[in-house]
Amino acid sequence: MTALTAFATVEGQRAKIARFVGNIAKEAGCNTRMINTDEMHGQMLLDDVAEVILLAFVGERRHRESFEAFFALGPEEAHDYLNKMLVRTVF
To answer: Which DSSP string do the residues of 18-84 spell out, in sequence order?
Structure first.
């Protein structure tokens, strides 16, 4: 089983947490992968991933753009996501 930890960080705190969580998963017998969404280019395959751990700061009701983009599976999904974000952020 592979556990994926996806994170976005500004000052490095989420990266520290991601490493800590990855070590715990390894000790539990899992294969681990870490992705800093700020450094991700293009799509990635998740075929071997059984568990996903997400770490990101929320500021002013938003995650970092790279973290939000990590979830965009295609044009329709991205459009739906943006619509939901507009609803959440309009006062």
So the answer is: HHHHHHHHHHTT-EEEEEEGGG--S----TTEEEEEEE---BTTB--HHHHHTT--SHHHHHHHHHH
How many H-runs (helices) and E-runs (strands) does the chain carry? Answer: 3, 3
Strands 31-36 and 2-7, sheet pairing: parallel
pLDDT of residue 42: 66
pTM over 0.70: no
What are the boundaries of each domain within the chain?
2-89
**What is the token pair recorded at 52?**
């996903």
What is the third-level CATH fold of 2-89?
Rossmann fold (3.40.50)
